[in-house]
């Protein structure tokens, strides 16, 4: 099976977020989809171990923003490779509250959606939330980031909790532990600097 075939599917890249009390949670996802038009409803699928998934389950609501191609890897690292249990991901970003009280960032956002959960489906390792769209707004006319663009241009990695995560197989190279950039080849030069986030060679781990 050629796993790269899955990269041909047309996904966007989004930040999904919610809150309970003072706790704010958010994560990068590529699983946001419109499922009906009248009423307007969207689905998003998140891993059960994901703090954002657990926060949405408690709050019954979520916000979603569509990321632009200009999104930097620092934002991807923060919302895609860290846990809201341990990190205030929203610190340092322009954050607003939507009509239902969910936080969302406006940095590199081209559009936003406010959703109220009307159903959820247990998929084993993941949960799919169906949300009725309460509001929607265009924030920018910048080109949107697709999953293919993220992999091909940003050379980004996929978090292990993502539905589209694939284990590395027979690949020689080094991965930046900060942003996920992959350096093809071996050995890694001692003075190498990550072209995306500026991390030194010591921040890279060898792909096995």
TrEMBL record:
- InterPro entries linked: Flavin_Rdtase-like_dom (IPR002563), NADH-dep_flavin_reductase (IPR050268), Rubredoxin-like_dom (IPR024934), Rubredoxin_dom (IPR024935), RUBY_RBDX (IPR048574), Split_barrel_FMN-bd (IPR012349)
Q: Which cofactor does it need?
A: Fe(3+)
Database matches in Pfam families? Flavin_Reduct (PF01613), RUBY_RBDX (PF21349)
Keywords, alphabetical: Electron transport, Iron, Metal-binding, Oxidoreductase, Transport
Q: Where is the signal peptide?
A: none
rRNA-binding found in the keyword field: no
Residues forming the Rubredoxin-like domain are: 171-207
Any one GO molecular-function label of the UniProt entry: FMN binding
Carries keyword Transport?
A: yes
Name of the protein in its database record: Flavin reductase
């Amino acid at each position: 099976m050629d796993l790269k075939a899955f990269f041909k599917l047309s996904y966007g890249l989004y930040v999904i977020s919610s809150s309970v009390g003072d706790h704010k949670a958010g994560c990068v996802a590529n699983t946001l989809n419109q499922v009906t038009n009248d009423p307007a409803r969207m689905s998003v699928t998140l891993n059960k171990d994901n703090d954002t998934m657990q926060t949405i389950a408690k709050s019954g609501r979520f916000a979603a923003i569509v990321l632009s191609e200009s999104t930097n890897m620092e934002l991807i690292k923060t919302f895609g490779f860290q846990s809201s249990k341990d990190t205030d991901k929203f610190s340092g970003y322009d954050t607003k509250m939507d009509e239902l009280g969910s936080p969302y960032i406006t940095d590199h956002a081209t559009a936003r959606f406010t959703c109220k959960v009307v159903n959820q489906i247990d998929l084993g390792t993941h949960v799919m939330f169906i949300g009725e769209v309460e509001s929607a707004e265009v924030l920018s006319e910048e080109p949107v980031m697709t999953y293919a663009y993220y992999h091909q241009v940003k050379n980004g990695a996929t978090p292990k909790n993502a539905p589209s995560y694939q284990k590395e197989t027979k690949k020689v190279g080094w991965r930046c532990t900060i942003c996920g950039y992959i350096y093809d080849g071996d050995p890694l030069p001692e003075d190498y600097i990550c072209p995306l986030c500026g991390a030194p060679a010591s921040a890279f781990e060898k792909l096995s």
